[in-house]
Amino acid sequence: MAFALTWLPTVLKNARLKVAEEPGWPNRGHGDVGTIKGVMCHHTAGAKTGNMPSLGFVRQGSDKLRGPLAQLCLGRDGTFYVVAAGKAFHAGPGRWQGLTTGNSSFIGIEAENTGSINDPWPAVQMDAYRRGVAAILRHIGQDQSMCCGHKEYRLPPGFKNDPTFDMDQFRRDVAAILSGTAPILPPIPKVDSQARPTLRRGSEGNLVKEVQKNVGFVGDTVDGDFGPLTEAAVRRFQRAQGLVPDGIVGPKTWVALDGVAAPG
Ligand SMILES: [Zn+2]
Predict the structure, then answer these.
(1) Nearest CA to 240 among 211, 216, 208?
(2) Count of domains in the chain?
(3) Separation of CA 40 and ligand 1 centre (Å)
(4) pLDDT tens digits, 44-53
(5) 111 C-alpha to ligand 1 centroid (Å)
(6) Lowest mean pLDDT: which of 28-37, 153-162, 191-200?
(7) Within 13 Å, how many C-alpha atoms sit on residue 235's CB side?
(8) Ligand 1 center from residue 218 Cα (angstroms)
(9) Which pTM does this prediction carry?
(10) CA of 160 to the centre of ligand 1 (A)
């Protein structure tokens, strides 16, 4: 039988967030959760490249601490990966708002970030983080005060530093979403001024080939299939161009690609 948090994908999708369900997630967990009272924010301290390189680790854990290590992962492009519907080992001993049952009472979100000041959080990822937390809090009937950072919950103080962003500001931003006063981040347009479609992982065709050629694609072939290697190459290109490295070829990235395109 599935565990209790089977509502997670629906709640996130209804908030118009990108959701990827990891195979087996409804039955994954260290037993079931208790009554969920809040959300705990983490960062993975994982690899610097890739959208969600820590996904396998969060699902499986290690010999020391078996997975799942969170119910949700959040990739650099703002995609939520649903890992588990049951209890996850993410909190450790600590306290928030009088609660000391972190793993039973809080949904854990592991967002991909190295934890270094040299790894700024992409706007698209932070926007999804705030909106995802707000959607969950609204669903469980709690306000922003029931969202904490692992660094705020975990005892002894200073034992954890995740997530690196300011949690007081994060809660203010979540409160603005809950009250309907937050500005809506404009979505990436579906086409640019030349009617070229926004391309991302899973896209196929001749325009993907064009991207692969111009982005310095180093995979086996220019095959027109926008897979993980193409995505990684797009991120490298975007970083070098001073763009948000979200791995999505939208209008701004198309313009940058035009600037490096080989003639003919
Ligand atoms: Zn953590």
Answers:
(1) 216
(2) 2
(3) 8
(4) 999 998 899 9
(5) 9
(6) 191-200
(7) 20
(8) 34
(9) 0.76
(10) 7
CA of 204 to the centre of ligand 1 (A): 37
Dump pLDDT digits (tens) for 210-254.
Answer: 999 888 766 667 889 888 788 888 888 988 888 877 788 999 999
Ligand 1 centroid from CA 61, angstroms: 13
Tell me the C-alpha distance between 210 and 223, whole Å: 10
Helices (H) and strands (E) in the chain, counts: 9, 6
Give the Å distance between the CA of 95 and the centre of ligand 1: 14
pLDDT at 158 over 80: yes
Structural domain that includes position 115: 8-178
Phi/psi-derived region of residue 260, left when phi > 0, alpha when psi is between -120 and 50, beta in every other case: alpha
Is residue 200 one of the residues assigned to a domain?
no
Is the pLDDT score of 132 beyond 90? yes
| Residue 186 within a domain | no
Q: Are residues 131 and 168 in the same domain?
A: yes
Question: Is the model more confident about 40 or about 248?
Answer: 40
Ligand 1 center to 115 CA (angstroms):
11
Q: What is the pLDDT of residue 188?
A: 75
Q: How far is the CA of 258 from the centre of ligand 1 (A)?
A: 41
79 by DSSP, 3-state: which?
A: strand
Residue 122, helix vs strand vs coil: coil
**pLDDT for residue 242:** 84
- Centre of ligand 1 to C-alpha 42, Å, is 4
Ligand 1 centroid – CA 143 distance (Å): 21
In this structure, are 142 and 16 located in the same domain? yes
For residue 76, pLDDT beyond 80: yes
Tell how strand 72-74 and strand 106-111 pair up. parallel
